[in-house]
Every structure is written in structure tokens, then in C-alpha cells.
Amino acid sequence: MAASPIKPAARIFNFGAGPATMPVEVLEKAKWELVNWHDAGMSVMEMSHRGREFIAIAAEAEANLRELAKIPASHKVLFLQGGATLQFSAVPMNLLRGGKNIDFVNTGEWSKKAIAEAKKFAQVNVAASAEDRKFTYVPKQSAWKRSKDAAYLHICSNETIGGVEFHWTPDTGETPLVADMSSHILSRPIEVAKYGLIYAGAQKNIGPAGLVVVIVREDLLGHALPDTPNVLDYKLQSEADSMLNTPPTFSVYLAGLTFKWLLDRGGLAQVERDNIAKAKRLYDYLDSQDFYANPVAREDRSRMNVPFTLRDAALDKEFLAEAEARGLSQLKGHRSVGGMRASIYNAMPIEGVEALVAFMEEFRRAHA
Ligand SMILES: *Cc1c(COP(=O)(O)O)cnc(C)c1O
Q1: Block mean pLDDT (10 aa), the chain, length 368
Q2: Together in a domain, 293 and 240
Q3: Which of 87, 200, 222, 272 is the right S-S partner for 181, CB 3.0 to 4.6 Å?
Q4: What is the whole-number distance in angstroms between the Cα of residue 83 and the centre of ligand 1?
Q5: Among protein residues, the one whose CA lies closest to atom 7 of ligand 1
Q6: Whose CA is closest to atom 8 on ligand 1?
Q7: For position 9, what pLDDT does the model report?
Q8: Structure confidence at residue 10 (pLDDT)
Q9: Are residues 234 and 280 in the same domain?
Q10: Which is it for strands 305-310 and 292-293: parallel, antiparallel or unpaired?
């Protein structure tokens, strides 16, 4: 890296999309407890998942998640492995329930990946697609062409790569609504009762990779395809408290610390207010000049992932290098769309956004 007169702070502002920045308070607490957790004489990493210490850690994580997201008793919470990507298969395996069709709303790269996997198990009907405008908006529900007998309807409620977010909850009537919330879960209150199933990989807004959270309505369970591996069978995992085999214990522990941190911040209503303020700061700046631009329809812009381009893409490299030298890290956009992307998850403080906007303005003045 080029020498810079400005020394980065000990901790950078990490705008990476995932694995992503975590709350420093959570990391400090985990450090404090790393070698000897609560006088157990060992680390959480070394505990049996069947022992009373870890069972208490997992139970508290679930209780805190339930309180945070106000998850009703109708819904089970599972802590599983394999990331959100394995859920692209696990969801159809469990939720087809004798049906043959699935409806999808295609809002971008993650929708497309979920569709490709679902096609291995079912007939996929794309009820609506935003591909006609390069995935820069969420198609209105009035324009969706749903099939009559879909086992469920799948959305990706925040497209991490395109920066497109559902700011409303679809109403699918009797058809269960399934959402991949990987990159915005816990960034705002969630109407859990309106969903048949919610899933989210942890490494965006919850904690470290290795863990995926599944929230599923209990009455949908018990109909997995006959060839479903046991560890992917929600019913079996639910009966085993997500411990059919060894769970990702340390990831569950860190997720639990994050849930506690969010509760201490005042819960999801407060977290949402903070996220609105952060996103507004960045989008207001993007809209105030024409050196940088964001392509997404205003009403569908993501509060978590903010892609933007420079008017002159030849300056991208210099922009990234100077940002990095100031401790503004991982701003490079996804390879499929290019440009920049600032991921501003729950753990990104407003100071990080302020520092980014100040740098962007300085860079603009130097090159405009
Ligand atoms: C990151 C991401 C995934 C994939 O997560 P993995 O844990 O890598 O499988 C899926 N969906 C969305 C919306 C994501 O942001």
C-alpha cells in the first residue's frame, strides 16, 4: 500500500458487504471471555454443545432474538450451518409439501441464485422481475403474475449487490411468504407473523460466518422431501433444538452477544431510526452533486448496501486507494456491477458514514 500522511486508526471503518464489520463492544466482550467464559475454566469454543453452559448460551441467544424481532410462538427459530446458499435448496426441500410450483420475485443477483437452486426441486414461476431496468427497483405487487398453486412465494427482501430493499411486506394471502433477509435482518422491525419462513446468513448483520438463522412457521414443518438429509430437515432440527449434529457453537455465542447489544441499544425501533439517519446522510450527499451517482429508484433504495459509481470510472482505482489509506475499507463494488458499494450495517456507526462523505467530497473537489 502507498505510504500515506494520514495514519489509519487502530480500527478501520469497514464497508465490506460480508463478512462485515461487527460491533466493537461485542468483540471486546468476546475477547474478555475468550479464554475463560464465566468461570467455566474454558472457552466457548471448547465446550460440549450438550453441556449445560453451551445449552444456556444457545437458549439465551434464541430468547434475545425472539424478544428483539418479536417472534410469535407460532414460529420456530433454528440456528443452522451452510450459509444462506444452502437454504436456497433447504427451503424447497422442506416447503414444497407435495406441491410442484414456486413463485419468485426476481430483484437481482441473490434472487437469481435462489431461483437456479429451486429449479432443481420444482417448477419456478417468476411472478415479477426487475431485470428490465437492470435490477434497480422492486416490482409493485399489483404487477406480479402469481401462479394459482405455488407452495410459497420467495423474495430477497434486500439485494446486497444491487442495493435494492423492500420497504414493505408483501401480502400473499394463504400462500406462505419466504424471504432471504441475509443483509438487512434486524436492521428494522420485522412483521414476522406475515412470513412463512425467513432466513439470513449471519455474516452481514448478525455476527461471524458459519451460522444461518431460520425463522419458520411451525405448521409448515413435517413434509420434507423423502431424500432430504436429516441436517436439512427443519422438523428434525427443530425437535433437536438445532443440535442434530454439532452446531457452529462459537458463531451462535457471538450472534447471542450481538442480539444483546441490539437490545441494549433500545431494540429494533431505535436501530431503525439510526439506520435511517445513516442512509439519509449518504443518499442526500449522493443526490446533491453529479460526480457520484446511485442508480436505484429512490423509494427502493437499501439502507444497508449503497452502491454508487464515479462519473469517470478511470478514477475508481485512485478513489479506492485513497479511501483505504484513510481507513475507509472495502468500498469496491461487486464484480458483477462494478463501481463502489458502501455497506452500512447495524454495526457501522454514523461516524463511519460521516468520514466517508467527508472523504468523497474532498475527492470530488480534487477531481471535478
Ligand atoms: C451473502 C448473501 C447470501 C449468501 O450467503 P452465504 O452465507 O455466502 O451462503 C445469500 N443471500 C443474500 C441476500 C446475501 O446477502
Answers
A1: 52 97 97 97 97 98 98 98 98 97 98 98 98 97 97 98 98 98 98 98 96 98 98 98 97 98 98 98 98 98 98 97 97 91 98 98 96
A2: no
A3: 200
A4: 7
A5: 83
A6: 83
A7: 52
A8: 82
A9: no
A10: antiparallel
The rounded Å distance from CA 305 to ligand 1 centre is 13
**Cα of 160 to ligand 1 centre, how many Å?**
8
pLDDT at position 336 is: 82
Whether residue 187 lies inside any domain: the answer is: yes
Which atom in ligand 1 lies closest to the alpha carbon of residue 85?
Answer: 9
| Same domain, residue pair 318 and 175 | no
* Same domain assignment for residues 158 and 209: yes
Let me know if residue 4 belongs to a domain: no
- pLDDT for residue 243: 97
- The answer to whether residues 228 and 282 belong to one domain is no
Residue 225 sits in the same domain as residue 272: no
- Per the structure, the complete domain to which residue 275 belongs is given by 267-367
Which residue lies with its CA nearest to atom 12 of ligand 1?
A: 182
Q: What is the CATH number of the domain that holds 84?
A: 3.40.640.10
Question: Looking at residue 311, which CATH number applies to its domain?
Answer: 3.90.1150.10
Q: How far is the CA of 338 from the centre of ligand 1 (A)?
A: 18
User: From atom 10 of ligand 1, which residue's Cα is the shortest distance away?
Assistant: 84
Where in the sequence numbering do the catalytic residues fall?
110, 180, 204
Q: Which atom of ligand 1 is nearest to the CA of 88?
A: 10
Whether residue 288 lies inside any domain: the answer is yes
**Cβ 85 under 6 angstroms from ligand 1:** yes
Q: Are residues 255 and 344 in the same domain?
A: no
- What is the number of the ligand 1 atom nearest to the C-alpha of 18? 1
Q: What is the tally of structural domains in the chain?
A: 2
